[in-house]
Backbone:
């Protein structure tokens, strides 16, 4: 069965620190990969996605993620976080076969200290 | 453009009662998904509609859960009778249905269900 693992459940950083959130998935076939974010009091929204091409994907608000197929990973990065990045981040995967099912990880709560 | 709307935002019920959650997707979105998140755990897939048809209901926990999507528009998720372990946040999401897996999901704000 497909699954998504996010290793960091809670992360606390100071402003300007660099961020890397880990995401690994288990599925042997072709996948599409996503990072969603939920800011306090808001809906889940798409941060970035990968479906083909350049494995380094750039998203909104300075975030990027790198797809490493050999490691089944899609880690999220940001060189310098801001207080406004405080949110919960979810990694998700969908496959190109079977039904349109998006599988999500457990989420990582990021708190950025001003 | 209106987003995905869920109602109610919170529901507190007693064990054994019935609760119905509603989701109004973005107009024109063929795909509608229900997810649930139990505190601290993953956002877990429940089921997927394409228009009015259930495409995949493999995530539905048991037959106490019934989802419908009348006319391919809004959807309801009924839990009858509710149990303590049904507590969590129920999310609805929709997407256009362009026929590929890289589509963006648009989420509602969720319904926080508490079963006492």
Residues:
């Amino acid at each position: 069965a497909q699954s998504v693992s996010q290793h960091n459940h809670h992360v606390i950083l100071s402003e300007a620190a660099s961020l890397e959130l880990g995401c690994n998935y288990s599925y042997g076939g072709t996948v599409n990969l996503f990072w969603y974010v939920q800011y306090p009091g808001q809906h889940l929204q798409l941060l970035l996605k990968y479906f083909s091409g350049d494995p380094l994907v750039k998203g909104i608000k300075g975030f990027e993620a790198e797809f490493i197929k050999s490691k089944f990973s899609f880690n999220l990065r940001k060189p310098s976080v801001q207080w406004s990045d405080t949110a919960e981040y979810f990694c998700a995967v969908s496959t190109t076969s079977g039904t349109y099912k998006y599988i999500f990880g457990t989420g990582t709560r990021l708190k950025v200290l001003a | 453009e209106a987003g995905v709307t869920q109602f109610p935002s919170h529901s507190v019920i007693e064990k054994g009662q019935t609760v119905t959650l509603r989701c109004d997707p973005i107009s024109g979105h063929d795909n509608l998904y229900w997810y649930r998140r139990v505190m601290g755990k993953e956002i877990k897939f429940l089921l997927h509609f394409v228009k009015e048809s259930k495409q995949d209901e493999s995530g539905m926990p048991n037959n106490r859960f019934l989802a419908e999507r009348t006319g391919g528009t809004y959807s309801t998720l009924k839990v009858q009778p509710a149990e303590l372990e049904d507590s969590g946040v129920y999310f609805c999401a929709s997407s256009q249905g362009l026929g590929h897996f890289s589509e963006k999901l648009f989420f509602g704000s969720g319904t926080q269900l508490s079963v006492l």
